[in-house]
Amino acid sequence: LCFEAVGHIARVYVNDRFVGEHFGGYTSFSFDIAPYVSFGSDNFIRVEVDSRETNNLPPFGNVIDYMTYGGIYREVYLLVKPSLYIEDVFVKTKDVMEDEKSLSLQITLSDAVNDVIVMCELQKVGEDTWRYLGHKSVTDVSVLVETKVTDVELWEIENPNLYNVRVSLWGQGEKETISTNLSTKSIRFSKQELRKQGYILQDIYETRIGFRSCEFRKDGFYLNDKKTKLLGLNRHQSYPYVGYAMPKRPQQLDADILKFELGLQAVRTSHYPQSQHFIDRCDEIGLLVFTEIPGWQYIGDEEWKEIACESVKEMVLQYRNHPSIVLWGVRINESMDDAAFYEKTNAMAHQLDDTRQTGGVRCIAKSDLLEDVYTFNDFSHIGINEGLQKKSAVTSKEEKSYLVSEYNGHMFPTKAFDDEAHRLSHAKRHANVVETFYQQEEIAGAFGWCMFDYNTHKDFGSGDRICYHGVMTMFRNPKLAASVYASQGRTNPVLILSSSMDIGEHPGGYIGPVYAFTNADFVALYKNNQFVKNFYPDVKAKMPHNPIVIDDFIGVLIEKEGYSKKNQERIKEVLTGVAKYGQNNLPIRTKLKMVLVMVQEKLKFEDGMRLFYEYVGNWGGESTSYRFDGMKDNQVVSSIIKEAVKEIQLAVSIDTTTLVEADSYDVATVRIKAVDQNKQQLMVYHGVITLEVTGDIALIGPKSVSMTGGSTGTYIKSLGRSGMGKLTITAEQMEPVDIHVQVCQADEG
Ligand code: GAL
After folding, report:
1. Is 334 assigned a catalytic role?
2. In terms of Cα–Cα distance, which of 266, 178, 164 is closest to 209?
3. pLDDT mean over 245-256
4. Does any ligand 1 atom lie closer than 6 A to the CB of residue 449?
5. Is the CB of residue 11 below 6 angstroms from any atom belonging to ligand 1?
6. Beta carbon of 409 within 6 Å of any ligand 1 atom
7. Please, which residues bridge with residue 641 across strands?
């Protein structure tokens, strides 16, 4: 009987007999219940779950900045096994840069039996054929099969080739324990041959791997010997309404969002091991993972530490075949040094997995370094200084690798509904840190805090027990800061503007410089369809696409006034100065320029007023329309229009319209935005949205929600039966949106 996770203590009984207990809410565990089961009749399984935060185990003992939702929140299933079975297979790949790669399979059986054979095969994911790898007679519980393979493709970020490894166990017996059409197209050894020799198939174990090497070196991280800067975010595993309890699809979606919407290379599973579905998806899409044991700042007594050590063991054993995982975190996040404890956790991780390095997140500089990588939360950026400290300021272990495990977060909480200046400042802080990260070659990786807002305890948050630290909202709707990351990607054109171009969002009506987060070469600005100016990124910047500053909304438009070139520039400065400081508070230099221009061009006060209203104020008459074109190779690849709102619409996206019930119910994620006629999000829209479902689906969460900052979301789930369902989303003054969803069972095909 297997539990993928139970928060935080589970006691399992079968037919009222105690079977076993498990401590810790973030790793899986299983019990052999055969001795407690009455075969041929009904059996009663009872699980007592203790989710109190007063229990003596990680992460509890002091305060914690996130909710630690309790209950049986991941899958539970029965695994039917013969009495002799394969308990575990740890696959290691070596020499991956050679044509002939080495593969070693460390196989653990449930028992030591004589005259048993294990056979190993390999299959590229997506292909049919299995390749024979090797076989071995076994006499002990563990056996090592070492072999070489050629013609396999590497697991890379852009090309995450995966392989299935299958180990079959053959023994002497009455009949085969499992019936399977094991289609072994083996050249040197086949199942027919085994059967001829009297062997019978007993068990099969399959796991998925990738051929890759990963190494944190003193100058950075290397994947397959290629230096790779790891830009990532921290992810909690929580969702609105359900806490931790989300099945496979939403877990996978988070990985997809990180990789495809935010263009990242990596994620840190702060502060505990997360769903296998999430990590599986990271394997599939090439997103590198830094995972760690549960805990937050506090280290408890010996009993507590023992459970922490147990969770190191569980984490490594349960996750070590994932190619996406490149680093084990073996310290309690942000705890103080505790050499004896951490020597133990570090040694355990190395002993159970000699292929990966260790780190352990600390918030103290120059602390003990027992692990391989100094992983440090650098919250030094306050918006006006360098984005990150230098490696040398944090650790004197120059020869070791260095990684920034968190930045920003609580240094600048930002709500999706904060005003424009605040949201821009949030985004700029992320951009500043990213820029410093790219400048400092020796920083292997940097993981921003954090992917999305999350519920927290009373000691943190904004009074509503929410930490607004995300670059996305809880519903995974992007804030402006998300576009810093999204615009680093090279594939899809991205162009997001920091401003709605509404003066009322700003003190004194001065919008100020506007930032374009884009992967375009430059941005061309048009006002009322007339070209204003091209804007380019800073050539000195090291990040792939630093934001483009748009600070001149008059551009060449003023040429038609016929002033001298010099005076055109002076007039622009004066007009901008009036907007920024007000007519009476102009800096003295600007005032002098104003006088000079007025004399030279013979301008009267009324002329100045006219220029101001035409070029800056934009009041009255036809509403001003700004168009920003993202240009790549001199072609328009993205374009946005900012003008007065004339119409409001719902913009709804759903990650699937087919829910498939397999090992559990299925959930679709619905993201909802209010937008204008140009599909620009209405950042100050807080209207009520009504959600109604009919048919074979149910809503997760309330039937009416208010938007915050122009966005919200919901989830729909299947109900254990096939059929059709409909979600209708309505809001005042907007066209309703219907979404039709089909529900089917995986075994129906
Ligand atoms: C860190 C901590 C995170 C989160 C973050 C907020 O100190 O590790 O869990 O609380 O601060 O910025």
Report:
1. yes
2. 164
3. 98
4. yes
5. no
6. yes
7. 627
| Ligand 1 centroid from CA 271, angstroms | 10
Q: Where are the beta strands (DSSP E) in 131-254?
A: 131-138, 142-149, 163-171, 200-209, 214-217, 220-223, 226-227, 230-234
Count of positions (residues) in the chain: 749
Is 343 a catalytic site residue? no
DSSP symbol at 623: P
- Please identify, by atom number, the ligand 1 atom nearest to the C-alpha of residue 363: 7
For residue range 403-462, what is the model confidence (pLDDT) as tens digits? 999 999 999 999 999 999 999 999 999 999 999 999 999 999 999 999 999 999 999 999
Q: Please report which helix (H) or strand (E) contains residue 345, including its range.
A: helix 339-352
Instruction: Report phi then psi at 171, rounded to 5.
Output: -140, 180
* CA 449 to centroid of ligand 1, rounded, Å: 7
Is the distance from the beta carbon of residue 406 to the nearest atom of ligand 1 less than 6 Å? yes
Q: Kindly name the residue from 4, 371, 406, 435 that is annotated as catalytic.
A: 406
Angstrom distances, CA of residue 115 to CA of 185, 197, 199, 364: 24, 12, 9, 55
Pairing status of strand 266-269 against strand 230-234: parallel
The answer, yes or no, to whether any atom of ligand 1 lies below 6 A from the CB of 292, is: no
In the three-class reduction of DSSP (H, G, I as helix; E, B as strand; rest coil), residue 150 is classed as coil
What is the spatial distance between Cα 19 and Cα 17, in angstroms, rounded to a whole number? 6
How far from the centroid of its chain's Cα atoms is residue 457's Cα?
22
| Residue nearest ligand 1's atom 3 by CA | 65
Per-residue pLDDT tens digits for 584-617: 999 999 999 999 999 999 999 999 999 998 898 8
Ligand 1 in reach of 377 Cβ (< 6 A)? yes
Q: Using CA atoms of 120, 125, 131, 132 in order, give the dihedral in degrees to the nearest 10.
A: 0
- Does position 182 have pLDDT exceeding 60, yes or no? no
Q: Percent of the chain, pLDDT > 70?
A: 98
Cis peptide before 457 (omega within 30 of 0): no
Distance separating alpha carbons of residues 281 and 470, to the nearest angstrom: 21
Which of 334, 371, 435, 643 is catalytic? The answer is 334
By alpha-carbon position, which residue is closest to atom 9 of ligand 1?
65
- pLDDT of 62 over the 80 cut: yes
What is the rounded CA–CA span in Å between residue 501 and residue 509? 10
Residue whose CA is closest, atom 10 of ligand 1? 65
Asked if residue 680 has its Cβ within 6 Å of ligand 1, the reply is: no
Whole-structure pTM value = 0.96
Residue in the block written with tokens 């324990």: 177
Around Cβ 669, how many Cβ atoms within 10 Å? 22
Residue 183 has pLDDT above 80, yes or no: no
**Amino acid in position 147:** T
Question: Token match 């059409």: residue?
Answer: 181
The answer, yes or no, to whether residue 35 has pLDDT greater than 60, is: yes
Give distance in angstroms: CA of 706 to centre of ligand 1: 28
Q: Using most ligand atoms within 8 A of CB, pick from 63, 65, 426 the residue to mutate for ligand 1.
A: 65
**333 touches ligand 1 (CB under 6 Å):** yes
